[in-house]
Amino acid sequence: MQLTPENASKIKATWLGHACFLAELPSSTVGVRGPRILFDPVFSDRCSPSQFVRLPPPCALEDVPKIDAIAQPL
């Protein structure tokens, strides 16, 4: 993915459903992407205590770009 020059210094966040976000941080090196952090990932049909609430994952795990770090709540 190539960022346009006017967006190269900005943080990009993509919501992936529930509380999951993919954050892409800017890089100080021209032509090199910044780190990507996946926050609170959920890629299953169920993430609640209820067995009746089921939602499809927001996307296939294979569709997520290379991740540098994963942050999960304690």
From TrEMBL:
<dbReference type="GO" id="GO:0070290">
    <property type="term" value="F:N-acylphosphatidylethanolamine-specific phospholipase D activity"/>
</dbReference>
<dbReference type="GO" id="GO:0070292">
    <property type="term" value="P:N-acylphosphatidylethanolamine metabolic process"/>
</dbReference>
<dbReference type="GO" id="GO:0005737">
    <property type="term" value="C:cytoplasm"/>
</dbReference>
<protein>
    <submittedName>
        <fullName>Uncharacterized protein</fullName>
    </submittedName>
</protein>
<dbReference type="InterPro" id="IPR036866">
    <property type="entry name" value="RibonucZ/Hydroxyglut_hydro"/>
</dbReference>
<dbReference type="GO" id="GO:0070291">
    <property type="term" value="P:N-acylethanolamine metabolic process"/>
</dbReference>
